[in-house]
């Protein structure tokens, strides 16, 4: 008998694949009307997808960021000067390898959570196998999350 939990942890959909992660960045860049990769205004998402560029995750492909050294405790970044983005060197895009690295780092905590969840679910499954259908039904009524996946 196999069981599944209702509150199974999920990864955000934009992190499911490398391409989905890239697309979510490209979409945000186009929607925020920033000047991605120093391209002409009116550049569409389709144009960017065709170019196969990997957006910089630090500067949102703007090529520049607020100087962290110029951060003001009251004004924040309002009056801070701009500096070239240290991650992409002001180019607005990064290599696929670097993007892959950032992606791997972003999904690591979700992978850990899901792995932990599976470990516990397997332990619970072992315990449930020792119970009768009647006992499982009572637990289901009380906790709500014990749900045989074959039903
Ligand atoms: Zn950058």
What attributes does this structure have?
151 residues, 6 strands, two-stranded antiparallel ribbon, 4 helices, mainly alpha
Q: What's the pLDDT, averaged over the residues?
A: 84
User: What distance separates the N and C termini?
Assistant: 10 Å
Shape: elongated
Strand content range: 5-15%
Instruction: List the total number of helices.
Output: 4
Strand order of the largest sheet: 1-6
Largest sheet: 2 strands, antiparallel
Radius of gyration: 23 Å
Structure description:
This protein has 151 residues and is mainly alpha-helical. The protein has one domain. The chain has 4 helices and 6 strands. It has helices at 18-31, 45-51, 96-129, 133-143, and strands spanning 3-4, 54-55, 64-66, 82-84, 93-94, 147-148. Strands 1-6 form a two-stranded antiparallel ribbon. A two-stranded antiparallel sheet has the order 2-5. The longest helix is centred in the C-terminal third of the chain and has 34 residues, at 96-129. It is elongated and about 65 Å long. Bound molecules: zinc ion. Zinc ion binds next to loops.
């Amino acid at each position: 008998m196999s069981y599944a939990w209702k509150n199974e942890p999920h990864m955000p959909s934009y992190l499911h694949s490398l391409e989905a992660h890239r697309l979510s960045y490209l979409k945000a860049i186009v929607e925020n009307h920033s000047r991605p990769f120093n391209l002409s205004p009116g550049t569409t998402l389709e144009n960017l997808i065709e170019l196969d560029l990997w957006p910089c995750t630090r500067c949102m492909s703007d090529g520049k960021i607020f100087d962290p050294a110029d951060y003001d405790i009251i004004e924040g970044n309002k009056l801070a000067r701009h500096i070239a983005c240290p991650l992409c060197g002001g180019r607005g895009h990064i290599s696929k390898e670097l993007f892959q690295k950032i992606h791997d780092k972003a999904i690591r905590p979700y992978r850990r959570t899901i792995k932990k969840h599976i470990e516990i679910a397997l332990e619970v499954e072992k315990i449930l196998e020792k119970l009768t259908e009647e006992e499982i039904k009572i637990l289901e009524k009380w906790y709500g999350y014990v749900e045989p996946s074959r039903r």
